[in-house]
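Re-run with default settings, no changes from the original entry. Doing this only to confirm the output is reproducible before filing.
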Amino acid sequence: MDHSSEARIGRTWALSVGIGSMLALGGPMAWAQMDDATTLQELRAQMQQMQRQIERLEREQREAAARRAAAPDNVVTGGDVPGSFKLPGSDTSVQIGGYVKLDAIYDLDQDLGDTLFVDGLDVADDDGDASFRAHARQSRLYIKTSTPTALGEATTHVEGDFFGGGGNEVFSNSRSFRLRHAYGELAGLLAGQTWSNFMHFAAYPTTVDFDGPVGVSFIRQAQVRYTFPAGPGELSLSAENPEGTGFAGSRDTAPDLTARYAWSRDGAAVETAALVRRLESDDAAASGDDSAIGYGLMLAGNYQVTAATQLMAGVLYGDGIGRYIYTAQGVEDGSDSIGAAFIDGGGDLETIEAYGANAAVVHDWTPKFTSSLSYGRVRGDRPSGLFPTSTRTLQSVHFSHFYQWSDPVVLGFEVSHAYKELQNREDGDNTRLQFSAQYNF
């Protein structure tokens, strides 16, 4: 029998005792105020009804105990979380899920590969060379668990996809499985690998392309994070895995630190975050000050304009922010892309200012058909005199459509355009058509 049945028995016994005490000890003064015969009949009827309830609940308790005793220890039962099951002999609920996804891609101007990586545009390739490719690398698998404890639910999440290295298109098209998420959480304390605490989820639109628009923060890494209520929202603090990019000889000596505040109400959400990081180089060229402090700021939000239309937008800014703006991570020698810092002529490590912004509108035409239009922009201020061929500006537009063919199957189609400009003002672009079929399980 469950705890609610035990509670009902307790309440029924308490009421029975109370009424019995009233009958025995109420005294002449109490009974003088009511009709004796009628009152006694009513009380007897109540006592009989409660006695029947007690007998029924006790019978249910005996039957439940008998069922538990008869059930073997290796029986799988339904879990506490929808779509989950419990491990035999355990209170842990396990949920297995994911999806299989096919992407068919046609680039009109140049081949950008399996994702629309805007910084990969070749500004010298302006011949309009079209290309087609198809893959299933975004297919995904996850395992989640939930275990009740005295401190609340202890949860874990392990997830991966096939965007790892390796594989070829000659025979098997095999791809390596890679880790996306692996973390546990209890009482607000999270430890493991997952999305950075600096990301702005309130303004991240869904696109057919795996990467989505530029100008967002898109990063997963190992971290320790603590989240707790603060005023009308919640505050999260984290220490995360460091990785300096965009300059030679990067050496990581301290974790990246973030703070994030999130607030949401019906139809609206706002997020803001701050980041501080230490950058250091042991390259021989860094003969002067070989360390610097980088920082970043984020603000994002969304608003439900109508029941069918949502607006979202986000902005990022930082000096030494680097990889915390997607596509601004840079390369080791600092000759291309944006990066977090560079080594100047005097041998000092200098941070690089970078900006990111994105906006989107999402509209549900019907309960099964949704469209979105999203735009993103990134700007980096690496000195053009020292790095004339490094990235100055990146932009992308995604016009996405999704149709829920059936409960587990979603079809998608997208037209996207990518643009890249270098510090010397050379530029290149590409238009992509993409179809997807996603089977969820």
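The first helix runs from residue 3 to 25. The longest strand covers residues 391-406.
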